[in-house]
Design brief:
The complex is a heterodimer of chains A (510) and B (120).
Chain A (H helix, E strand, L loop, with lengths): L6 H13 L2 H40 L4 H4 L14 H4 L2 E4 L2 E5 L15 E2 L8 E2 L1 H5 L9 H9 L5 H6 L13 H7 L10 E4 L1 H18 L2 H19 L5 H22 L6 H11 L4 H26 L5 H4 L11 H15 L2 H19 L10 H15 L10 H6 L6 H28 L29 E5 L2 E6 L15 E6 L6
Helix pairs in contact in A: 2-16, 6-9, 9-10, 9-11, 10-11, 10-12, 11-13, 11-19, 12-19, 13-16, 13-19, 16-17
Chain B lengths: L6 H5 L7 H29 L3 H20 L6 H8 L6 H18 L12
The chains are: A mainly alpha (510), B mainly alpha (120).
């Protein structure tokens, strides 16, 4: 007997009976039960990880609120960076602000910059006055004096800046905390200052200093040294963020190089040396780096929490994340979409685990508190690498690590750079004391004990030895200061093993 | 030989048991029956679950319940709410910040300070 029903209906009924039976139902129920169990387990273990990481964050940094952690403002009348001459460089740049320093702002028109002899073995780089003077008719004038005369007062900017040196602070505008508040606490929307042409401006100011010192212009040497330190390096420390810390380390390095060169010239007086010491002693480069990294950890933590709390309200919280590099293969876009779906509909624990991973890894990079903690930076970095290799082998598809890993910057060992900057800063402070001693007694002392009283107000210990000053020994025409460096071994000032700072007195007028 | 082993029993005269005995036995039987009736109704619900799945499913849901109840509050609720109220903080901004830092670190720091912290 042939059924009256159409063939397709019979097939559909057969399929429905095949699928919608009791066994399939129970299979689905078991699967749902297992998924529920996985979600609960994932939430449970990740919440524990996040709780521990959050506690560690608060213990290490002192807060989980980056607005409170941001640097407060200073009144304009106390702010060197709020001088009218600096504010004229300030321009709105979209939602942010930009300080646009005109090109060659500190150099007279048509001035030809001299070549610089590179630094080596701890000796500062120097201006090649001879090369600069070659082919010029200086009419018997010494090259350094001629250059100093040509540079003049930096198009009238140096006296205007020198007039504000009595202001105690130098802080970028807008003030970081205010900028964060205005942006509703979104650190990435906050108006961060952007200083253009800063490298050129610092080098040009440094040239003024080197030329003034070589020419024996005591007053200009003193004021230019202070302007050089305050205008960009000090102001860069006024925003606690990693970009500012990197900027500070770099521009301080440029300023320190010029100061080292200038201190080798007998163009200083007692007052100038003391003011230079006071200015140098205001900042601790390791502290600046730590604050920058701490802020980055805090804002990254906040970003993770924001994604966690808002990802289910729309796609925006995850759509910017490139979960897979587009290599042209057909499955990569699909992989990206599936990953985003996973973060939207998957367990909240995945977000918690990512935030915990980010915070824990960042705090590992940051290390413990303490002045000599930076020395373990390399070991911490290697431990992280090992951990990554062992634990996070399959990072590409590990939903518990992907977002955290994406947010972690690969920046190397920043503390080494900061420690070296701090060592150079302290060498300059010590060099001021030694120069004062030389001015009084005609020679540098045989040991640093002779200038101990002079250095009392300043922390001048070797960054690698919290209880001792850097190594010191007299050399021909100067002296050598050295730090143990990151290996914490005293190699007696050996090149490439210790941090070196060499003073070579240059009394000839060039 | 075909011995009828029940013949002796059959040969005995049947005597009705005494009423006290019947009453006692009946009461006891009624008491015993009442309790299993309630249990079986409960068991009837579980009987719906296939026998091999009963224990694993029970363990699964009990564990899920345990995890649910003992999940700690990682971040205080007030903190979470304040973070959620932030203006859109897109991951693209997070990544742009990371890239800016990496570029600056590469540009500004001398090569000897480019350390071993790996790209994770």
């Amino acid at each position: 007997m042939v059924s009256s029903r159409p063939y397709s209906v019979r097939i559909a009924r057969w399929l429905a009976r095949l699928v919608c039976n009791r066994r399939t139902g129970w299979t689905l129920f078991c699967l749902a039960s297992l998924i529920t169990l996985y979600y609960q387990w994932e939430n449970w273990r990740s919440a524990r990880e996040l709780k521990t990481a959050h506690q560690r964050l608060v213990e290490r940094i002192g807060t989980d609120d980056w607005v409170a952690f941001a640097t407060p403002g200073v009144p304009d009348e106390q702010n060197f960076f709020a001088l009218p001459v600096v504010e004229q460089w300030l321009h709105p740049n979209g939602e942010g602000l930009k300080y646009t320093i005109p090109e060659n702002a500190f150099l007279p028109p048509g001035f030809i910059k001299p070549p610089i002899i590179e630094a080596k073995a701890g000796v500062a780089s120097q201006v090649d006055f001879t090369a600069w003077a070659a082919g010029r008719d200086l009419k018997g004038e010494a090259p350094a004096v001629a250059m100093n005369r040509e540079l003049g007062d930096g198009n009238g900017l140096l006296p205007q800046l020198a007039a504000g040196l009595s202001r105690p602070f130098s802080a970028w505008k807008p003030v970081q905390r205010e900028a964060y508040r205005k942006a509703g606490a979104n650190p990435y929307e906050a108006a961060a200052p952007n200083v253009g042409n800063v490298n050129t401006a610092v080098r040009d100011l440094a040239l003024h200093l080197r030329a003034a010192a070589a020419a024996g212009d005591v007053e200009k040497t003193r004021s230019t040294a202070l302007i050089l330190l305050r205008l960009f390096p000090e102001s860069a420390t006024s925003h606690s963020w990693l970009v500012g810390s990197l900027f500070s380390t770099a521009v301080h390095g440029m300023a320190f190089e010029a100061l080292q060169d200038a201190l080798g010239r007998p163009s200083w007086n007692e007052e100038g040396l003391r003011m230079l010491q006071l200015q140098l002693g205001k900042i601790d480069d390791l502290d600046v780096m730590e604050r920058g990294m701490s802020m980055d950890a805090l804002t990254g933590f906040g970003g993770g929490i924001y994604i966690r709390e808002t990802c289910r309200k729309g796609w925006s919280a995850t759509e910017g994340l490139r979960f897979s590099a587009d290599d042209g293969s057909w499955y990569k876009p699909t992989e990206g979409i599936l990953t985003r779906l996973g973060y939207v509909y998957g367990p909240t624990g995945w977000h918690d685990a990512n935030i915990a991973f980010f915070v824990e890894t960042y705090l590992d990079m940051l290390g413990p508190k303490g002045e000599s903690a930076w020395m373990d930076g390399r070991a911490r970095g290697e431990a992280l690498k090992k951990r990554r290799d062992e634990e996070y082998r399959h990072l590409d598809w590990n939903m518990r690590r992907k977002i955290g890993a994406l947010a972690l910057p690969n920046v190397g060992n920043l503390f080494n750079a900061a420690a070296e900057a701090l060592f150079r800063r302290r060498c300059l402070i010590i060099a001021c004391a030694l120069e004062r001693h030389r001015m009084k007694h005609g020679v540098f002392p045989p040991s640093l004990a002779a200038v101990k009283d002079d250095l009392k107000p300043f922390p001048v210990n070797d960054p690698a030895r919290p209880t001792q000053m850097p190594g010191y020994r007299l050399e021909k025409d100067g002296y050598l200061l050295w730090s143990l460096g990151p290996d914490a071994k005293d190699d007696g000032g050996a090149k490439d093993k210790d941090f070196l700072w060499r003073m070579k007195l240059n009394t000839e007028q060039q | 030989m075909n011995i009828d082993i029940e013949s002796t029993l059959r040969a005995q005269r049947w005597r009705d048991p005494p009423p006290e005995f019947l009453e006692r036995v009946l009461d006891r039987a009624l008491q015993n029956v009442a309790a299993p009736a309630r249990t079986s109704r409960l068991l009837a619900l579980f009987a719906f679950i296939p026998r091999p799945l009963r224990l694993p499913l029970a363990a699964c849901w009990l564990l899920a319940f345990f995890f649910r109840v003992t999940t700690p509050e990682a971040i205080p609720q007030s903190t979470l709410e304040s973070y959620a109220k932030l203006p859109p903080m897109t991951p693209a901004q997070l990544l742009a910040n990371r890239q800016q830092i990496e570029r600056l670190a590469d540009e500004l720091l001398q090569p000897q300070h480019h350390g071993v912290i790996p790209p994770l």
